[in-house]
Every structure is written in structure tokens, then in C-alpha cells.
Write a structure and sequence with these properties.
With 233 residues, the protein is α+β, with helices and mostly antiparallel strands. The protein contains three helices and 15 strands. The strands form four sheets. Strands 2-3-7-6-5-8 form a six-stranded antiparallel beta barrel. A four-stranded antiparallel sheet has the order 9-10-15-14, with helices on one face. A three-stranded antiparallel sheet has the order 11-12-13.
């Protein structure tokens, strides 16, 4: 399996790795800084640089049975098994995803409702909520988000035993998706004094790094679904 360097340091922009396998499905490396699509966050894009300087454009990153798949763009020459490559992610795109993903965690703190779905993008992101009795006031939600961002709270992952998560079911905000189990422990994302919930994505180190956000719109997507769409200001 691929060593996931981004789990410990989401700010790594480059690293070296060795090719484990390469096919039209994707390039598997022994280690990577590329985040694979999951949890509503898109897979990273970027390049792999071979020893001779040839660059392989990576158009997407996905999870695969044999490891993380770095999907090459059409027309790229694949590397050989055992070859050493230098990894370079599209940092500007990734960093926007990190800012957006962290902002969605803050949105969970502002809106006290169960999450029914979500999607992260570089330009705009959304969360869907089961509204219950919650009133969705666009101006109030935006003000609450920017107030939490301005607190510049520390954001950091931590791990808990699965048994601890079982004892605290309120930590799981998603109603239809449960965090992966079977490894004995679960990764949480903690925003100090604000939010704590399971998450395997990439995030900024402090809320102030998000910058100002705007609530573009709130839509009704059915009796039990309100969609809140955010954008970076």
C-alpha cells in the first residue's frame, strides 16, 4: 500500500517516491503527497518528474486496491516499475481545497443540523443539511463563519480508538456516511474549541488561513435537505 505522506503533513508540496506499478488505470507509488478523491474532496493534480526531466501530468488521484492511483493525463508516457520520480502537486489548487474543507467544518459548527452530503471545490463548496427545526439565515451563517475564521483557532488531526468513537456517536455529523473502521482507530479533525469530528481530508493549520468566506446561496433540495453554498471571498 502507498504511504500517505499527506496524512501527517498536508503542506508537503514535493517529495520523492518509487514506482510500484504503472498502467492505464494509474501509477502506484510507494509513497505520495497526492490526496486521493474521498470524503467530498477532489483528488490532487500535478506532475511526476522522471530522472531525465520528463514530466508526467497527473490529471486525478483515486484510491485503488493496490494503493493510491495517480491517473496520468491522456498521451503521457508511463514510468517503469522501480523508477524514482519527484512528485509535485498543484499546490494552488490543493491549498484552496484545504481552506474550503476547513471552512465546511466551521459551517458544521455554525449550523446545528445533521449533514446529508457535501462537495469541496476550489471555487465553491457546499454542505447539505437535514434542517429539522433549524432556521437557515444566510447573513447570520456568513457572519458566524467569518467570526470563527477570525478567531484563528488551531486546526489539527488526532486519532482515537474506535471504541471511543462508539461511546461518542455525536461526533459523527454525517447521516448517511460513517467513518471507515477496521483499523482499530479513527482519524479526527479538531478545530480547537470549535469542532471535532471524523475526517481524513487535508486542512489548513489555523482557521485564519481560510480567509473571508461568503455564503453564496441557501437552497431547498427537498423537505429534509437544505444546501448551503460557500465561496472564498
Amino acid at each position: 500500500m502507498t504511504e500517505e505522506l499527506f496524512r501527517e503533513d498536508a503542506y508537503l508540496k514535493t517529495a520523492t517516491a518509487q514506482v510500484v506499478a504503472a498502467s492505464s488505470a494509474g501509477i502506484v507509488l510507494d509513497r505520495t503527497i497526492f490526496y486521493p478523491m474521498g470524503g467530498g474532496q477532489p483528488g490532487d493534480t500535478g506532475t511526476l518528474v522522471r530522472a531525465d526531466g520528463m514530466r508526467i501530468v497527473i490529471a486525478d488521484t483515486r484510491k485503488g486496491e493496490g494503493g493510491i492511483l495517480h491517473v496520468a493525463a491522456d498521451g503521457q508516457t508511463l514510468p517503469e516499475t522501480g523508477e524514482a520520480v519527484t512528485l509535485e502537486i498543484d499546490w494552488a489548487r490543493r491549498h484552496r481545497h484545504m481552506r474550503m474543507h476547513t471552512a465546511l467544518h466551521l459551517l458544521c459548527a455554525v449550523v446545528p443540523a445533521g449533514v446529508t452530503g457535501g462537495q469541496i471545490g476550489a471555487d465553491r463548496s457546499r454542505l447539505d443539511f437535514d434542517p429539522g427545526e433549524v432556521v437557515f439565515d444566510k447573513a447570520a451563517i456568513e457572519a458566524g463563519l467569518n467570526r470563527l475564521i477570525a478567531q484563528d483557532a488551531v486546526v489539527a488531526p488526532r486519532w482515537v480508538e474506535e471504541s471511543e468513537l462508539d461511546a461518542r456517536p455525536e461526533l459523527v455529523r454525517t447521516m448517511s456516511v460513517q467513518p471507515p473502521r477496521g483499523a482499530g482507530r479513527v482519524r479526527l479533525l479538531e478545530i480547537e474549541g470549535v469542532d471535532l469530528q471524523p475526517c481524513g481530508g487535508t486542512h489548513v493549520a489555523r482557521t485564519g488561513e481560510i480567509g473571508a468566506v461568503v455564503v453564496e446561496k441557501i437552497e431547498s433540495k427537498g423537505k429534509r435537505n437544505r444546501r448551503v453554498v460557500l465561496a472564498l471571498a
